[in-house]
Amino acid sequence: MKVAFFSTKKYDQDFFEKINSDNKHQLTFFETALNVHTASLAQDFEAVCVFVNDDLNKKNLEKLADCGIKLIALRCAGFNNVDLAAAAENNITIVRVPAYSPQAVAEHAVALMLTLNRKTHKAYNRVRENNFSLEKLTGFNIYGKTVGVIGTGIIGICFAKIMLGFGCKVLAYDIKPADELKDLSVNYVAIDELLQESDIISLHCPLNEQTHHLMNTDAFNKMKKGAMLINTGRGALIDTASVVEALKQEKLGYLGIDVYEQESGLFFNDLSETVNKDDDFLRLMSFPNVLITGHQGFFTKEALDQIAQVTLKNLTEFESGNELENEVKA
Ligand code: NAD
């Protein structure tokens, strides 16, 4: 198929070209994100391939349909950026990569948790400046703590298992509990109990109408004072204004995020020579107990390889008219 890739970096191109070495599909890589101004680049292509911050709203989908696009291949798991009803109205099929190394994201959540706790990012800088003082680097034992996992799909299950390995008591909340975790002494509880009892909470549910701003003022008020919140799910699971307030009031003890509500246009770009005008983001960065990474949970060799393999398989299935294993429907 002739496929236009949007929001691509060199590493995307490298991995896709390696897996597509037989040139089964004709791949064209655009660096630009897909938006109302760039959708017309898809003219003369049969499919587009997009990432987490490409906006597949009704208007852009209509433009893509006008260009003749029949398939949109998401090279990610989440599909909160797609208006599925509008895609169906425009006869555009959506496929995704439902699972690519869930360990990559779960392990990144653990990295955020450990860094925030043991302050290794601060220790690294101190030692490089010949400052060997331990003042204010005190952490706490993860062993024996209560960890709450919200969303126990493939990533949440990996994360919960790692936490069990650390010797934690694991609580979980999900609208569809996983039998695998119940068998491993994970306790499914109501969300309020999880918020009240957990020392550390990690978010692994999708972003949708039910989970938008799941972590709001009400939720922060229910949490233990000084608890840690980790988010590798999607930015808008957390209400940014509420989390800033919870940090200011010292209710929330630590915040580790790999995703941010307004990350589109910010993350994945080198903006080191530009003025950051996002005051909420700057406020978050001003707290000593906040750690932010730029949506890199997925970013391992294994995951990039898997993303390229599954995406190309999705294209081949569509082209040959076979049943689509990874189709997303409204
Ligand atoms: P998944 O579909 O396997 O699991 C999601 C789980 O959330 C399911 O068990 C589902 O029942 C549950 N859920 C749905 N609605 C819920 C609700 N209202 N309350 C509680 N639980 C609910 O998905 P996954 O592969 O484990 O991924 C989880 C999320 O992680 C994705 O949706 C995506 O947003 C995010 N993600 C982030 C990165 C990254 O690089 N940071 C990479 C991949 C995925």
TrEMBL record:
GO-annotated molecular function: NAD binding; oxidoreductase activity, acting on the CH-OH group of donors, NAD or NADP as acceptor
InterPro entries associated with the record: D-isomer_2_OHA_DH_cat_dom (IPR006139), D-isomer_DH_CS (IPR029753), D-isomer_DH_NAD-bd (IPR006140), D-LDH-like (IPR058205), NAD(P)-bd_dom_sf (IPR036291)
Stored Gene3D superfamilies: NAD(P)-binding Rossmann-like Domain
Domain D-isomer specific 2-hydroxyacid dehydrogenase NAD-binding: start-end pairs: 110-297
Cross-referenced SUPFAM superfamilies: Formate/glycerate dehydrogenase catalytic domain-like, NAD(P)-binding Rossmann-fold domains
Keyword NAD among UniProt keywords: yes
Key words, A-Z: NAD, Oxidoreductase
Pfam families reported for this sequence: 2-Hacid_dh, 2-Hacid_dh_C
Keyword Ion transport applies: no
Name of the protein in its database record: D-lactate dehydrogenase
Taxonomic placement: Bacteria, Pseudomonadati, Bacteroidota, Flavobacteriia, Flavobacteriales
